[in-house]
DNA sequence: TCAAATGGCGCC
DNA sequence: AAAGGGCGCCATTTGA
């Protein structure tokens, strides 16, 4: 990588992607001003130094906080020191005017994107960049093996001033008198933070976070990507995923019969339930696992669960109807008419996305199962007139990530192939792709038994470095240690009860039961940490990818991110822009590879497809 | 009677 | 092919 100043933008190779504006979103969340370009061999730092587009006279940071009925804002320099007066923004118009007047590329600073950004979006204000104190604090505290508080900025401020930390359970004092004893309302908890200057709180939290991440480029990249992801998440939640309600309704009616009144099974389910009762000869409620299990047990089958893959092998007349009932009942309850009513408005599905909501760094979603849209419902995810989806996923991301973080030469060689599993199969599994895939998944998830457990020795022989990486991660977990993703997200330490159980098993007088229990919980935590390094690093890559895509498509009129699920995304785009957006998506993936795995020969290919229906994307 | 736990299953 | 990682959601069951 060269260090020429003009080469520092970290953009896709060859500069063939039209940008028309400086790339400035992704990194440099902390203190960078134009002209102060820092260079070394770490391309993440090149990228950090390459932040441009900040107006010479504009603020580096603009802190924004709700205040009373309106907002307050204040410019800060790159050290987090206020450089201007507090601006009071009493109403929406003032906020809009203020936002429009800020320099292009200003980095906003606020407490939590999930609470601050939606009202801005509702007022028609979009921002390019932000430093999200709460998400950053979660990452930093995790690294320091501490827990995050609900309002991070206030907590950081309190600690620095030796004040009680708001909402900190440890600091809460038990009430002297039991509530209700005097028939009085329990007094509202005092909230000293209500009197603090919200902009001071933000500035100080920023300074603390800047200090604590000083010099750690990977961590700063993660913080930048996490903050940018939060913007994308809020925008996606507001925009919604195009979903044609009438199409989904028709599918439901075809499969379940007419929509029933509340509390009643749809016709098809009622019919199947009646058939099941008939097959057993007495009433059996297929919605009740207890009922169903005892029914099969009475019929002579020794089963401990009624999971479909267990049921399907039983030789009993009720089996086909039970299986069909389970499938359709799932559709009815999880993605039926109620779901449509509750989560789809104006032919758009609105979930709330929570970046960093999963300990590994993956997103979580609240509402409507936003990250578990079943294949069938994807048939109703249709682009609007004149539009298409650019759908892209990172093929076999996790094994590629394992190759990158471990540096295993053989696995890296395999990752050069478009279909990693086929290459893997040819490399050691006699061409058997299914076996190769099962083995690799088992290695990353910690399988011990069955087919995938049996195949582990093959992997260990072929890819000793990669296997040692995951096995070491598992070992650390079993010992109660923590592990990190490639950019530095840290796994939580095990709970006190975990430690107690493991300790109990190690004592000289431990019984067999205690020993076995200790072994099992230790192994389970080892499986978690084993997977954490892979899943977490994949999430790091994906966050950087998403951030890049968001930054790039901002220049494409009408293009909007409408879905992101761990390693895949959907951009809803005017048909004429599909090709250019597809190219941007690929470019962002290349950029993510370079930033997250600098110098690694690993390949993390994405293959965008242009579709009108999400179900056709795969 | 209500909240928490469980069983099951969709997604990655 | 088999039951290993991460989630959210629903209906039912359990337990205080």
TrEMBL record:
Lineage summary: Bacteria, Bacillati, Actinomycetota, Actinomycetes, Nakamurellales
Ubl conjugation is among the record's keywords: no
SMART domains with a match to the protein in the record: POLAc
Name of the protein: DNA-directed DNA polymerase
Chain spans, region Disordered: 1-22
Keywords per UniProt: DNA replication, Exonuclease, Hydrolase, Nuclease
Any single GO BP term: DNA-templated DNA replication
EC id: 2.7.7.7
Superkingdom of source: Bacteria
Keyword Hydrolase: yes
Organism: Nakamurella alba
Bilayer-spanning residue ranges: none
């Amino acid at each position: 990588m060269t260090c020429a100043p003009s080469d520092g933008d970290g953009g896709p190779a060859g500069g063939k992607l039209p940008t028309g504006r400086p790339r400035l979103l992704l990194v440099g969340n902390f203190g960078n001003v134009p002209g102060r370009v820092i260079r070394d061999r770490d391309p993440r730092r090149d990228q950090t130094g390459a932040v441009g587009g900040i107006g010479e006279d504009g603020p580096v940071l603009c802190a924004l906080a709700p205040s009373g009925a309106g907002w307050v804002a204040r410019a800060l320099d790159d050290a987090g020191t206020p450089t201007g007066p507090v601006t009071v923004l009493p109403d929406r118009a003032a906020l809009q005017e203020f936002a429009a007047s800020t320099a292009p590329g200003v980095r906003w600073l606020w407490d939590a994107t999930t609470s601050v950004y939606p009202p801005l979006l509702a007022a028609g204000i979009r921002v390019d960049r932000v430093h999200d104190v709460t998400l950053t604090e979660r990452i930093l505290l995790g690294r320091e093996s501490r827990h995050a508080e609900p309002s991070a900025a206030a907590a950081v401020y309190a600690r620095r001033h030796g004040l009680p930390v708001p909402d900190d359970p440890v600091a809460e004092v038990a009430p002297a008198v039991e509530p209700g004893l005097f028939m009085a309302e329990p007094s509202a908890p005092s909230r000293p933070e209500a009197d603090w200057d919200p902009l001071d709180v933000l500035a100080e939290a920023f300074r603390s976070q800047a200090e604590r991440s000083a010099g750690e480029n990977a961590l700063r990249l993660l913080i930048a990507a996490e903050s940018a992801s939060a913007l994308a998440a809020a925008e996606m939640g507001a925009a919604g995923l195009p979903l044609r309600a009438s199409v989904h309704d028709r599918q439901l009616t075809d499969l379940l019969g007419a929509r029933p009144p509340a509390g009643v099974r749809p016709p098809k389910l009622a019919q199947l339930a009646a058939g099941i009762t008939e097959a057993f000869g007495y009433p059996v409620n297929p919605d009740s696992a207890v009922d169903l299990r005892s029914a099969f047990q009475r019929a002579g089958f020794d089963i401990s669960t009624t999971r479909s893959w267990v049921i399907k092998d039983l030789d009993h007349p009720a089996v086909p109807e039970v299986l069909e009932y389970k499938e359709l009942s799932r559709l009815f309850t999880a993605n039926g008419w109620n779901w449509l009513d509750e989560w789809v408005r104006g032919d758009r599905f609105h979930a709330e996305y929570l970046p960093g909501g999963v300990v590994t760094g993956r997103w979580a979603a609240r509402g409507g199962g936003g990250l578990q849209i079943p294949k069938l419902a994807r048939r109703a995810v249709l682009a609007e007139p004149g539009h298409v989806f650019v759908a892209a996923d990172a093929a076999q991301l996790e094994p590629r990530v394992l190759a990158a973080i471990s540096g295993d030469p053989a696995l890296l060689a395999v990752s050069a192939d478009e279909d990693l599993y086929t290459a893997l199969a040819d490399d050691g599994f006699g061409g058997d792709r299914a076996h190769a895939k099962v083995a690799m998944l088992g290695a990353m998830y910690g399988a011990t038994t069955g087919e995938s457990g049996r195949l582990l020795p093959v992997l260990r022989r072929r890819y000793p470095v990669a296997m040692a990486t995951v096995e070491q991660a598992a070992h650390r977990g079993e010992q109660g240690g923590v592990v990190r993703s490639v950019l530095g997200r840290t796994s939580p330490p095990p709970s006190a009860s975990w430690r107690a159980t493991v300790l109990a098993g190690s004592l000289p007088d431990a019984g067999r039961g205690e020993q076995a229990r200790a072994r099992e919980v230790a192994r389970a935590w080892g499986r978690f940490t084993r997977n954490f390094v892979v899943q977490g690093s994949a999430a790091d890559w994906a966050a950087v990818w998403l951030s890049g895509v968001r930054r790039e498509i901002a220049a494409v009129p009408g293009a909007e991110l409408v879905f992101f699920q761990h390693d895949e995304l959907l951009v809803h785009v005017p048909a004429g822009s599909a090709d250019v957006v597809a190219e941007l998506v690929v470019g962002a993936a290349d950029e993510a590879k370079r930033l997250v795995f600098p110098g690694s020969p690993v390949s993390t290919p994405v293959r965008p497809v242009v579709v009108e229906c999400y179900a056709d994307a795969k």
